[in-house]
Design goal:
Strand content: 5-15%
Largest sheet: 6 strands, mixed
Shape: elongated
Radius of gyration: 41 Å
CATH class of the largest domain: Alpha Beta
Order of helices and strands: HHHHHEEHHEHEHEEH
Oligomer: single chain
Strand order of the largest sheet: 4-3-5-2-1-6
Number of strands: 6
CATH superfamily of the largest domain: OmpA-like domain
Structural class: alpha+beta
Mean pLDDT: 77
Distance between the termini: 141 Å
């Protein structure tokens, strides 16, 4: 029995220590195949690339008739043409720029004429300081003192105020600009049945002006009512004069063409009639 056990141990095959070579060879083969595929994908067809580069250069670069096309495989920079009088791109774009500038000038002229028409319609109120007409980057702003339009603490238009607002509506109703109507108050608190605060009072006054504009032919889609209460004063509320200045309604004819802020002087009123006659 001891002899058989010794023979069985002697017949066992020795352990193979080189089995890792199989896995290593498979890994190397896969890695080689991966790099072959990557190289095949990244290779450039020189002939097709040359045709593409020459087409781009000939399309975007102005050349002399005798100048040959580039022979480089990778041109450094494709230069855009420099605008000159003889450049066909500029010749095509220049009429568009001129047309845009012309439209902008026409809009500016219309806004100035509208400001003059408003000044002419409200000339007496402008002279006594009840109305101010300014032109800013927002457009034309007509600032009307609230005492001209409303009784204290009320949003019902006074009897003689409709004439002032109708004059403004007659000027703006034939134009397409947006019109913002802003109501402003002083800082004295109010708490009535209809107006619990200055917010409600200022918004109600703006809405009353809008209603009159709509009734006089202004398109309702152009109008926006804004109520600021006492929160955007233009003068100090320490004096009766300052509070009276802050109680106002502002009518802004919006413009998309920014201009420098300029207040139209009262002296211009006398020149408006002469311009209208001419």
């Amino acid at each position: 029995m001891r002899r058989k056990r010794r023979n069985s141990q002697h017949n066992e095959p020795p352990e193979n220590h080189d089995r890792w070579l199989v896995s290593y060879a498979d890994f190397i083969t896969l890695l080689f195949a991966f790099f072959v595929v990557m190289y095949a994908i990244s290779s450039v067809n020189a002939g097709k690339y040359r045709v593409l580069s020459d087409s781009l250069v000939s399309a975007f670069r102005t050349k002399d008739p005798g100048q040959s096309q580039t022979s480089d495989l990778y041109p450094a920079i494709v230069e855009l043409p420099i605008p000159t009088e003889s450049n066909p791109i500029q010749a095509t774009a220049q009429p568009i720029v001129d047309e845009l500038n012309k439209k902008r000038q026409v809009k500016q002229i219309r806004m100035r004429r509208m400001a003059k028409d408003i000044m002419q319609a409200l000339a007496p109120l402008v002279e006594d300081g009840s109305v101010r007409v300014t032109q800013s980057d927002r457009g034309i702003t007509v600032e009307i003192n609230a005492s001209v339009l409303f009784s204290p603490g009320e949003a019902q238009l006074a009897e003689n105020s409709s004439t002032t607002l109708r004059a403004v509506a007659a000027v703006v109703k034939n134009h397409e600009q947006e019109i913002h109507i802003e109501g402003h108050t002083d800082n004295l608190p109010i708490n009535t049945l209809h107006y619990p605060s200055n917010w409600e009072l200022s918004t109600a006054r703006a809405s009353r002006v809008i209603r009159l504009f709509v009734n006089n032919g202004v398109d309702a889609s152009q109008l926006t009512a804004l109520g600021y209460g006492e929160h955007q004063p233009v003068a100090l509320n320490d004096t009766p004069e300052g509070r009276a200045r802050n109680r106002r309604v502002m009518i802004t004819i919006m413009s998309n063409e920014p201009e420098q802020i300029t207040e139209i002087p009262v002296e211009l009123v006398s020149d408006i009639e002469g311009d209208a006659v001419r």
